[in-house]
Design goal:
The complex is a heterodimer of chains A (about 425) and B (about 500). Chain A is about 20% helix and about 25% strand. Chain A has about 425 residues and is an alpha/beta fold. Chain A has 3 domains: about 5-135, 2Fe-2S iron-sulphur cluster binding domain, sarcosine oxidase, alpha subunit, N-terminal domain (Ubiquitin-like (UB roll), Roll), CATH 3.10.20.440; about 155-265 and about 365-430, FAD/NAD(P)-binding domain; about 280-365, FAD/NAD(P)-binding domain. In chain A, the strands form 6 sheets. In chain A, strands 8, 9, 10, 11, 12, 13, 23 and 24 form an 8-stranded mixed β-sheet that branches. A 5-stranded mixed β-sheet of chain A has the order 2-1-7-5-6, with helices on one face. A 4-stranded parallel β-sheet of chain A has the order 15-21-16-17. In chain A, α4 (about 165-175) packs parallel to α5, α4 (about 165-175) runs parallel beside α9 (about 415-430) and α6 packs across α7 (about 310-325). The termini of chain A are far apart. Chain B is α+β, with helices and mostly antiparallel strands. Chain B has a domain at about 10-70: Arc Repressor Mutant, subunit A (Orthogonal Bundle). Chain B is about 30% helix and about 20% strand. Chain B is built from 13 helices and 21 strands. Chain B has a 9-stranded mixed β-sheet with strand order 3-19-15-18-17-16-7-9-8. The termini of chain B are far apart. The chains are: A alpha/beta (about 425), B alpha+beta (about 500). At the A-B interface, β4, β6, α3, β11 and β12 of A face α1, α3, β3, α4 and α6 of B.
Chain lengths: ~425, ~500
């Protein structure tokens, strides 16, 4: 069983992966459909042609890229399924499963240093340059140029909130309550951020809250832009925000706002393990959302690995849900390696021994998604990795730019929502 | 995996392993900016989102300091921006501005790492500036037996224009002198890997200059005749013939082209690391994160270089500080006419090979090529860019570049930009370098290369080292002396791109 037995999750269409048919549900991500069909391997790595597949399931890593409908290097976790969608693996000979170029990983078992590779003779060097060029690069050029994008015009809002997790929703709620016209942006197709994992922890905002905030934003004349990535702030006197709306063709929107609240959260970090890049290793939060929203059961046996301090609630949720779906699950505290050929088959433990599993859920602190804040003028504290210098209110990152939620450090969803509200109130005061 | 030896991948986008990071650290690349450039981690599709934390933890375990663990400078865009979507904005609505992120960049400001090793108290030669010129000269001096050389840089290696350029190398210039230097440089680059043991990934895919109108076409014709006399293989191509070299271009956008198949591109970062590593093996010392704050002098000679970490007594000082050379010269009371000017550049995601030559358009300054890794690397000068050291990135550039590029190569509209940055051209009034002594008998100048220093460095530093170690003095060290700016009738190089 790869999906929960529930009509809400039943496939209703087909896509193709490397010309083979895969059942899918329209609207779910390509990665969700492939995982539900038991396929974790969707790509090969650029240099060693190691097997790769979705890790973060949240649009931040680069492990699941494929050619989709003729467009190279698309994230399978971000492209929605529709009937007949064509998904092709890239950068392989004979497809992702049996890529002949995987031999590179064995030939260069101890690594390949691009500085010193093939410098012995001029002839060998010329050959290395010619061959490596053919091997480099991921996808092939698109077959045809896209239709021209419509002209982008400047739009104005009272405030822009980036990130529709608990902190961003809290900020948008406070801004809307103050009558402000707010643009709430998230690159995910669904609002909620980590609430999408539906942990239901004590103190978590109630389930209906997400929809209530979105309605409040609309009522106050604002807009919710999902599947829209905030691509950056470029200053030119006032802050200018370029928003890429991921539609076909992609459209760029130039947004100006009186204030900006950043609630961009964190990027999950892969596990620090030998062969920890194998398909079947996932960020726990992404896996939980996939289970909650699409009923996807990612494998037949699982391990939950705590990395970088772990996260007890997420780990427990993975255990409970997969066990309820009949998947044996083990908690693992310290592992040194993953093992497997095309997909993870076991975790090797620090103290010796191993846990057989085809799925690993990694919990732990992510890396603050700080790029937008830094582009907007926020400064990192020199004495602490990736944490910000904040003004006295604990929220202001730069003039006109506030932060909230896990971007600023570890916080529960409730704390993040409260902090978001404070940031929204401060932004509404201007 | 699959019967092979396990790998601990820290950066999945570029397949960078823990061993790669450890090796970089052992080679002295300890901070995240340097490790990024040495290993390539964080430069792929995720732009560091899924690896900066892992790499920082690995470096911390190896002993890196908090300052060395500052996450590398944030570069826009924070999400992929397809060129076609960018072209839909109006560039004229976007003024020329300093750009983002606000200065200072990581590793270049007050909070930069502080090296623990002390500076040598004296050296025969101190070179100010650890870019391609300074490091190339240090290597060339050391291999001629003059290893008592110290190279100083205010930041990490590759922090300046040498680490920020598009890697283009061409012999298509307008004067015999420049053509001779460029050809010699390309020859040296061909042998770089076997001579220095380091790849610079020289790929001779040619340079294609496009003329959008008959006036520019006439320039190409004039140049082609010079090239023919000098023995270059430059050919004039019709728009139809251009499609054989670069099939994705729209031939209605130009009337003629010049193509030299021997021009090409290199990967800039290893170039510096190669020179630095070999120079140090031969006795030179390279001191990064060290800022020159003044000079000591006696009569017509400089006697010491003063830095924020102490002074170095020396016999010769070389000013190879690129865009900062005017500032460095002024610390010695020497006025130079350099005008540092920002030039912006960007890369797309990696694609399989589809473009062989570097393409450049006369008139608007657009240029682009496909790197060895498959990214489209390109830039475009902005006539409204003011003088000044500014390395921020602007939306205006992206939009101007996207419009010009997607107009010329419509297929690029589908490709997203994943990273943009900027560096400074070191511009001079005649677009030629400033060489020879200036102000003091032992204050040698090696700057003013106007965006093409990278491709000239192998030949120029070789000739300069030859001269400094008692060999022949190349005519360029007289021709391009600072004093020429006092004379009328400057001969101006006009084949500057970008």
């Amino acid at each position: 069983m790869a999906r929960l037995d529930d009509p809400r999750f039943a496939p209703d269409c087909e896509i193709t992966f490397d010309h083979r048919r895969v059942p899918a549900r329209a609207g779910e991500s390509v990665a969700a459909a492939l995982l539900a069909a038991g396929r974790a391997l969707v790509a090969r790595s650029p240099k060693y042609h190691r097997p790769r597949g979705p890790f973060c399931l949240a649009g931040s890593c680069g492990s699941c890229l494929a050619r989709i409908d003729g467009q190279p290097n698309r994230r399978t976790c971000r492209v929605p399924c529709r009937p007949g969608l064509s998904v092709e693996s890239q950068n392989t000979i004979l497809g992702a499963d049996h890529d002949l170029l995987a031999v590179v990983d064995r030939i260069y078992a101890r690594g390949l240093d691009h500085h010193t590779l093939m410098t012995g003779s001029r002839l060998a060097n010329r050959a290395a340059i010619a061959v490596s060029r053919q091997l480099a690069g991921l996808g092939k050029l698109p077959a045809a140029p896209p239709a021209p994008s419509p002209p982008a015009v400047e739009e104005r809002f009272d405030a822009v909130v980036v990130g529709a997790g608990p902190a961003g929703l809290g900020a948008a709620e406070a801004l809307a309550a103050a009558g402000r016209r707010v643009l709430l942006v998230d690159d995910a197709p669904v609002a909620g951020g980590r609430l999408r994992a539906r942990l239901g922890l004590p103190g978590d905002p109630p389930g209906a809250w997400v929809a209530e905030v979105l309605q409040a934003v609309h009522r106050a004349g604002g807009e919710v832009a999902l599947a829209s990535a905030a691509a950056g702030f470029w200053r030119d006197g006032g802050p200018l925000l370029g928003v890429l709306v991921d539609a076909a063709p992609p459209r760029l929107r130039a947004i100006r706002a009186g204030s900006i609240v950043l609630a961009t959260g964190t990027h999950p970090q892969p596990p620090d393990l030998d062969d920890g890049d194998l398909p079947g290793v996932f960020a726990a939060r992404g896996l939980l959302a996939l289970h909650a929203e699409h009923g996807v059961i990612p494998g037949a046996s699982a391990a939950v690995l705590a990395e970088n301090r772990g996260d007890e609630e997420e780990a427990e949720a993975v255990v409970v849900r997969l066990a309820a779906a009949g998947v044996p699950v083990r908690r693992v505290e310290g592992a040194r390696a993953a093992r497997g050929t095309r997909r993870v088959a076991a975790l090797l433990l620090d103290g010796g021994g191993e846990v057989a599993c085809d799925t690993v859920a990694v919990t732990g602190r992510g890396l603050p998604a700080a790029d937008l804040a830094r582009l907007a003028g926020a400064r990192l504290r020199p004495d602490a990795f990736a944490h910000f210098e904040l003004s006295a209110d604990g929220l202001t990152l730069a003039p006109g730019v506030l932060g909230a939620g896990e971007l600023l450090g570890p916080r529960s969803a409730r704390e993040a929502a409260d902090e978001g509200r404070r940031a929204g109130e401060a932004a509404a005061r201007g | 995996m699959g019967g092979g030896v396990a790998k601990r991948i820290l950066c999945a986008c570029e397949d960078v392993t823990l061993d790669d990071v450890r090796h970089a650290f052992e080679q002295g690349h300890r901070d995240l900016e340097s490790v990024k450039r040495y290993t390539g981690f964080g430069t792929g599709p995720c732009q560091g989102a899924s690896c900066v934390g892992l790499v920082a933890r690995a470096l911390a375990r190896l002993g890196a300091t908090p300052a060395e663990l500052a996450p590398f400078t944030a570069r826009p865009p924070a999400a992929e921006l397809p060129l076609g979507a960018l072209a839909a904005l109006d560039p004229d609505a976007l003024p020329v501005v300093p750009g983002v992120p606000p200065e200072p960049e990581v590793g270049l400001g007050e909070e930069a790492p502080r090296p623990s090793a002390s500076l040598p108290p004296q050296a025969r030669v101190v070179i100010v500036g650890g870019g391609i010129m300074g490091l190339g000269l240090a290597y060339q001096l050391a291999r001629r037996g003059l290893g008592d050389v110290v190279v100083l840089d205010r930041g990490y290696l590759n922090a300046g224009a040498s680490g920020r350029n598009g890697g283009g190398v061409r012999a298509q210039w307008t004067t015999p002198t420049m053509i001779r230097l460029a050809r010699r440089s390309i020859e040296r680059m061909r042998d770089f890997a076997t001579e220095l043991g380091v790849n610079v990934w020289l790929r001779q895919g040619g340079y294609l200059f496009l003329a959008p109108d008959v006036e520019q076409a006439a320039r190409l014709e004039r140049n082609q005749k010079v090239h023919e006399r000098e023995g270059l293989r430059t050919r004039l191509l019709s728009p139809r013939e251009v499609l054989e070299v670069a099939p994705e271009l729209d031939p209605s956008r130009f009337v003629a082209a010049a193509y030299n198949p021997d021009d090409g591109t290199v990967f800039p970062w290893p170039f510096l690391y190669g020179y630095a590593a070999r120079a140090q093996e031969l006795g030179a010392r390279v001191c990064t994160f060290t800022r020159v704050v003044g000079f000591e002098s006696a009569g017509r000679r400089l006697t010491a270089v003063v830095t924020d970490r102490g002074s170095i007594a020396c016999e010769t000082v070389v000013n190879a500080a690129g865009a900062w050379s005017k500032e460095v010269a002024s610390l010695a009371g020497v006025r130079t006419p350099n005008r540092p000017t920002r030039h912006e550049i960007c890369v797309t995601g990696p694609l399989k090979p589809w473009l062989d030559p570097l393409v450049s358009v006369l008139g608007n300054g657009l240029y682009f090529s496909q790197s060895q890794r498959g990214e489209l690397v390109g830039g475009m000068g902005d006539p409204d860019e003011p003088e000044g050291i500014e390395q921020g990135s602007t939306l205006r550039f992206l939009v101007r570049y996207a419009r010009a590029l997607t107009g010329l190569a419509p297929i690029t509209a589908a490709i997203p930009v994943i990273r943009q940055w900027a560096g400074c051209y070191d511009v001079t009034p005649d677009n030629n370098p400033i060489l020879g002594a200036a102000g003091f008998d032992n204050f040698l100048q090696l700057h003013g290369f106007v965006g093409h220093g990278f491709m000239m460095a192998p030949a120029v530093t070789e000739a300069m080292a030859e001269w400094m170690t008692g060999g022949a003095k190349d005519e360029i060290f007289d021709r391009f002396e600072l004093s020429r700016f006092d004379q009328p009738d400057l001969v101006r190089e006009d084949f500057i791109i970008g």
